[in-house]
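[User] I wish I could look at a protein chain and see how it folds. I have put the entry right below:
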Amino acid sequence: MNHDNHADNPLMDFDLLRKLVVGIGEVSDITGVPQRQIRYWEEKGIIQSYKEGEGTTRKYDYLSIKKILLVKELLDDGFTLDAAAKKVEERMRMINEVFQKLSDR
């Protein structure tokens, strides 16, 4: 068994997670956050989307979806949007560092 390959554990496939990109409708379904609110958070610079051209739908990657879930959780806990965004930035920095260390293995 080759342990360098993460095929035996799909959750450890960071390349796949990096390439995973879904539309705003699916993101709304996954997170339970309305599309209008997702667009507002993007306008405020809390999350980023990818657009493949004019008139195409916004697409979000795994880390953006994770961010949306974290912000929603903090808002549900009573944080303001600004406070939640700041807290999520700190958490995302830590998640990114862990991600980097794991993918460097």
Notes: Helices lie at 14-19, 24-31, 35-43, 62-76, 81-104. The mean pLDDT is 85. The domain at 10-104 is CATH 1.10.1660.10 (Multidrug-efflux Transporter Regulator; Chain: A; Domain 2). The chain has one domain: 10-104.
